[in-house]
Design goal:
The complex is a heterodimer of chains A (353) and B (404).
Chain A: H1 2-21, H2 32-40, E1 43-47, E2 56-57, E3 63-64, H3 66-79, E4 85-89, H4 95-100, E5 106-107, H5 115-118, E6 125-127, E7 132-134, E8 136-141, E9 156-160, H6 164-175, E10 181-185, H7 188-196, E11 202-206, H8 207-215, E12 223-225, E13 233-235, E14 238-240, H9 244-262, H10 270-279, H11 284-289, H12 296-300, H13 306-314, H14 317-324
Parallel strand pairs in A: 1-4, 1-5, 9-10, 9-11
Antiparallel strand pairs in A: 2-3, 6-14, 7-13, 8-11, 8-12
Chain B: H1 8-16, H2 20-47, H3 51-55, H4 57-62, H5 71-93, H6 103-122, H7 127-150, H8 156-159, H9 165-178, H10 193-219, H11 224-238, H12 242-256, H13 265-291, H14 294-302, H15 307-337, H16 349-357, H17 366-395
Helix pairs in contact in B: 5-7, 5-9, 6-7, 10-11, 10-13, 10-15, 10-16, 11-13, 12-13, 13-15, 14-15, 15-17, 16-17
Classes of the chains: A alpha/beta (353), B mainly alpha (404).
């Protein structure tokens, strides 16, 4: 019975494939998805909904977080209104299916970009630029004086058992020839409780998660994240593979947020910059970037001022970062890899040309 | 109680300190319970930070329901309170009037008043919201009193139609919640919290019951095709965990039905809950059918009743009475199963709690949130259980209604 059901599902999915394939995908202007979103008047955005700093619901029912701000920026760019977003909370197992079935337009749900998720033979997603370079980190009490992984040699470290975190830690410690005692726990809560009781001198998890947990500790300032990053977790928004026009629109909206930071354009000064660019015909780069001249927007199927709209709605990339997970938030994460390339980070927007 | 020495002190002595060993065990247990109780109380009063509940009380109650439309939910709550009071009063006083306020009723009213007074104050809700809760509680108790006082004055012909207010109210509630008929539409994605939990649970409970009865009859049918299909359905559903079926509903339907045709995620989940519970209710009802002597049906048939009438008038009333406790147990577990909706990304009570705990302003307040959740669920399940006990007593011809 189950198998028959599955076969039927596949048969229908196969029948639907050529229809999707026939979609006119020459140039962004004719993007089916974008036309659908404009017709509907709202962007449907898949988020986690339960991740500190990335997406959660405020007491007044509105959504906040870094992932959420990306959705708002895209809605502002495509529809001119950051409030026109319909958020869908998705768990990790249904997120790709929701994207593939067209239930959501954009997946902005702390998803790590990997080969198998990108490849058409795998999940077949189309990834936008990475908005948060996360990675596994290690946290230790400040008082212990430990400043690097090497300092942990011979000491007990708390890990959640059966996770990739556990394997990554073992690999890295073997690499630097530092034996240690892993203390394994079934759940995250147990792991942190043991760490706080002093049963181990360090605890390991994704750096953003460590920072989030730290804010709930009795004295958050007494714990530091060690500088080493044990794994690569580039958290990246994604769209469905079949619609390059829509993927481009999302990609360049996000690049626009990054470029705005590089150019020093903020939510506060965007009107001034826009007036400056409009008045001064010599600032050709800025004029094109802000849509005063040229047809970047038109090429993407977006309004000419899509960058202006996005930055007005949520600020530039740096502002989004600081407000949600950085110094302006309780998480107090360092920019680290998420600095602009000009400051030694990985945030790099290709030229708007 | 006619045993000698039934004053409270003597009873305590007899039940807890009959022998030295008993006394020792009692003392140890009482000491342990006191220690735990004190620790919990100390935590609740001095350590817990209830700001997380105060700030998010609306979110817990109705989720992301638009603020300017929330009057509809207040109206619905008031109507529900009035209808509950009316039914409660009539059930107690009819057909044979017992005492106006039996002990259980006095207890329930006391609890309701205490809850209505203490809860809004403890949560420091806005004055207007507090006032609304007090008014709603007052109207519930008033209508209970009025129905008990004047219930008998209602002509019996009219009285028969009174239970119909519930389905009508349910339909009206659906319109009030989702919009239509001139009201602004509020999509299911904006329902949440207790509202979503109760809505999906009541939807599933109402629909799974008739479905379950049909399945149970089908399973005992003499038509092989019908019997086979019923058995297949029941065994398939019972062989799969609810969470897999929920995932199936969320993930597969989107592929099977193009674009906008698939029902909303909330409705998909509600239907899956319904179909799931129906299989278990069917087995409960079947146990009731099996408990019935076959002579009942044979007698009804030999009196010339056609099969459907024999089932409706003779077999089912007796079978359902036997199956009632098991069925209500199923309903209660169905109510608790709605917490699984949080795993498929819906903002039911548990989902709301998890998203609240992810707010950096309230990180680490798990204890407070889960305690409130447990109390809320306990209240809902206790209400279901009490209601079913009252119904059982009423349906059981051997017990007088006053005992309930």
């Amino acid at each position: 019975m189950k198998r028959a059901f599955r076969t039927a599902a596949w048969a229908l999915a196969l029948l639907a494939t050529p229809l999707v394939g026939c979609a006119p995908d020459g140039g962004g202007i004719q993007s089916l998805k974008l036309a659908g979103i404009k017709g509907r008047g709202t962007l449907i955005c898949g988020v986690d909904g339960k991740l500190p700093g990335f997406s959660f619901v405020n007491p007044d029912g509105s959504y906040s977080g870094l992932d959420v701000d990306i959705c708002k920026a895209v809605a502002a760019a495509a529809l001119g209104d950051p409030t026109k977003v319909d958020f869908r909370d998705l768990n990790s197992s249904e997120r790709f299916a929701a994207l593939a079935s067209g239930e959501i337009d954009l997946l902005s749900r702390n998803t790590t970009l990997t080969l198998s998720r990108d490849a058409s033979g795998g999940n077949g997603l189309s990834f936008a630029p990475t908005v948060f370079f996360d990675g596994q980190g290690v946290m230790a009490p400040k008082a212990s004086g430990i400043t690097s992984l090497r300092g942990l040699a011979g000491k007990p470290i708390c890990v959640e058992s059966g996770t990739t975190t556990e394997l990554n830690l073992a690999d890295r410690m073997r690499e630097i020839k530092a034996p240690y005692t892993p203390l394994k726990f079934q759940t995250g809560d147990q792991t942190y409780a043991a760490y706080l009781q002093g049963r181990c001198v360090a605890v390991t998890s994704d750096r953003s998660q460590l920072a989030a947990k730290r804010t709930s500790f009795p004295d958050p300032a007494a714990h530091v994240l060690l500088p080493e990053v044990l794994s690569k977790e580039p958290l990246t928004p994604a769209t469905v593979n079949g619609d390059p026009g829509w993927a481009d629109a999302v990609r360049w909206t996000i690049f626009g947020l990054m470029q705005a930071e590089e150019l020093g354009i903020t939510q506060a000064n965007i009107d001034v910059k826009l007036a400056e660019a409009t008045a001064n015909a010599n600032q050709a780069d800025l004029r094109r970037f802000l849509g005063v001249e040229g047809e970047f927007g038109k090429q993407l199927g977006l309004p000419a001022d899509f960058v202006v709209q996005a930055v007005k709605a949520v600020g530039n990339y740096g502002e989004i970062f600081e407000r949600n997970v950085g110094q302006g938030s309780k998480l107090k994460l360092e920019r680290g890899l998420n600095r602009q390339w000009t400051q030694g980070g990985l945030i790099y927007a290709p030229p708007f040309r | 109680m006619n045993t000698p020495g039934s004053s409270p002190l003597q009873r305590l002595r007899r039940e807890l300190f009959a022998s030295p060993l008993d006394g020792l065990i009692s003392l140890l247990l009482i000491g342990f319970l006191l220690a735990v109780g004190l620790a919990v109380l100390r935590w609740m009063l001095f350590q817990a930070q209830w700001a997380v509940i105060q700030a998010n009380s609306t979110l817990f109650a109705v989720g992301r329901y638009p603020v300017d439309q929330q009057w509809r939910l207040w109206l619905l709550t008031s109507l529900l309170a009035l209808a509950s009071g009316l039914s409660w009063g009539l059930l107690r006083r009819l057909p044979h009037p017992g005492p106006a306020w039996p002990r259980n009723d006095r207890l329930a009213v006391g609890l309701l008043i205490a809850l209505a007074v203490v809860a809004p104050l403890a949560l420091q809700l806005q004055a207007s919201v507090q006032l609304r809760w007090w008014l709603i509680t007052a109207s519930l108790i008033t209508s209970r009193w009025a129905a008990g006082r004047w219930g008998q004055a209602i002509p019996p012909a009219l009285r028969r139609w009174i239970p119909l207010i519930w389905p009508l109210l349910y339909l009206a509630g659906m319109v009030l919640i989702s919009g239509g008929l001139g009201l602004v539409s509020v999509p299911p994605s904006e329902w949440g919290g207790l509202l979503l939990t109760l809505l999906t649970a009541s939807f599933a409970i109402l629909l799974c019951f008739p479905l379950g009865v049909l399945l149970a009859l089908g399973r005992r049918s003499e038509l092989p095709l019908l019997r086979g299909a019923s058995v297949l359905y029941i065994e398939f559903i019972r062989g799969a965990p609810l969470i897999t079926l929920l995932f199936l509903g969320q993930n597969i339907l989107g592929f099977l039905l193009p674009g906008g045709l698939a029902p909303d995620r909330v409705w998909r989940a509600a239907w899956v809950l319904t179909f799931f519970a129906a299989a278990y209710v069917a087995e409960a009802v079947r146990s009731g059918l099996a408990a019935l002597p076959p002579g009942q049906l044979e007698a009804a048939r030999s009196l010339g009743l056609p099969m459907p009438l024999a089932l409706i008038h003779v077999v089912l009333p007796q079978a359902l009475r036997v199956a009632l406790p098991a069925t209500v147990g199923q309903f209660i577990s169905l109510l608790q199963d709605t917490t699984l909706l949080s795993l498929i990304g819906l903002l039911d009570l548990l989902g709301t709690a998890r998203t609240v705990m992810a707010n950096p302003a309230f990180l680490g307040k798990n204890g407070e949130v889960y305690l409130v959740l447990a109390v809320l669920f306990w209240c809902c399940c206790a209400a279901l259980g009490l209601g079913s006990r009252a119904l059982e007593h009423r349906l059981n011809p051997l017990s007088s209604p006053a005992q309930a």
